[in-house]
């Protein structure tokens, strides 16, 4: 049976507040399972997903961009040797053995030692994808700003033309009054 983590354990393992986990669940349309009483519980896969989301947020991605990445993140199967899920499972076993340290300290040690071992093509590929997506998001924002500037300039020109036309009409009316007088 798959290991289940409570909200408190998930908070300790990820360093993410519980209300943020719930917010991400809602905003990113994550399917978090619930027990018989309706309480949330997290699997190793969910913990890994939250850690990946946290990393993406730290790199500056917005939730709407991360929402598009969720299927790509989910493609790495939980049992894959490149997955940190395996490390999280080891972490829960080590935590049970070492009662002097809290869960987050043990998990952090296990994750750090595991990360040193997993510097391979998948991680590099993931980083390249993230950097490309970040660059695309920045380019998109710059394009949107440029469109707004262009629209603003066109509106200002139109307003200036209307003012000039109104001034010209006012001049014609004043010339007619002087002629009639």
How is this structure best described in words?
This protein is mainly alpha-helical. It folds into two domains: 118 residues, Multidrug-efflux Transporter Regulator, Chain: A, Domain 2 (Orthogonal Bundle); 62 residues. It is 73% helix and 0% strand. It is built from seven helices and no strands.
Our estimate of the beta-strand percent is under 5%
H and E order: HHHHHHH
Radius of gyration equals 29 Å
Please give the count of helices: 7
Structural class by helix and strand composition: mainly alpha
Distance between the termini: 101 Å
> How many domain units?
2
Cα shape? elongated
- What is the CATH architecture annotation of the largest domain? Orthogonal Bundle
Largest sheet, in brief, is: none
CATH topology of the largest domain: Multidrug-efflux Transporter Regulator, Chain: A, Domain 2
Mean of residue pLDDT values: 76
Return residue spans where pLDDT drops below 50 for at least 5 consecutive residues: 77-92
Strand elements, count:
0
